[in-house]
Specification:
192 residues; alpha/beta; Glutaredoxin; five-stranded mixed β-sheet; two-stranded antiparallel ribbon; 5 helices; 7 strands; globular
Length: 192
């Protein structure tokens, strides 16, 4: 009789622990659909890429499926790029970091060369970027990627379904915020 009671208590405790642990630690992962083709053109699914961020973590563009993505191509010597970078965390906090990510891809360091890890760290620190990735691109990567760069900075806005919806040359904080606002799911029936 005592053994049965102890066994029941142990089973109930184990079930409660599993449920409680799952509620605290289990996150539902968004199933990312696959598509046969990618293109870095408006209305298309962007091609995935993989780069190291300022913290030394490997980042894939597709890691952010389910979020609105602000993709900022910048150069360290560019004044408007610095203004954009300084606003990155503020813009994401305004809309919610669960819904939006601001990804900076540095194409050139302050000398016009390919950025290195220290450049990413310096950029993030100088501009107060703490919650968004800063990645190291290059002119060669950019030319092979299919992204069009006509001015510094250049922005691509990707909706939560991983479709490129808008392209902007130059930086205007209000234009960036308007582009993000239009892509948030609560503003349209489909989040597009």
């Amino acid at each position: 009789m005592l053994l049965k009671r102890i066994l029941r208590i142990a089973v109930v405790a184990l079930v409660a622990w599993v449920i409680f642990s799952c509620m605290l630690g289990c996150k539902s992962k968004v199933d990312m659909p696959t598509w046969d083709e990618c293109s870095n053109e408006l209305g298309q699914h962007p091609c995935d890429f993989k780069m190291m961020d300022q913290d030394g973590k490997q980042i894939n563009l597709y890691d952010y499926y389910g979020k609105v993505i602000i993709l900022d191509f910048s150069a360290m010597w560019c004044g408007p790029c610095m203004h954009a970078g300084a606003d990155a965390d503020e813009i994401v906090k305004k809309f919610g970091k669960d819904d939006v990510v601001y990804i900076t891809v540095l194409i050139e360091n302050s000398s016009g060369n390919d950025p290195i890890q220290k450049n990413l760290e310096d950029w993030a620190k100088a501009l107060g970027i703490e919650i968004n990735p800063v990645l190291a691109g290059s002119r060669e990567w950019l030319s092979e990627s299919g992204y069009h760069l006509e001015s510094w900075p250049t922005f691509y806005f990707i909706n939560s379904r991983m479709i490129i919806k808008e392209y902007q040359r130059g930086y205007n904080k209000h234009s960036v915020e308007r582009a993000v606002q239009k892509l948030l799911p609560q503003n349209t029936d489909t989040g597009e």
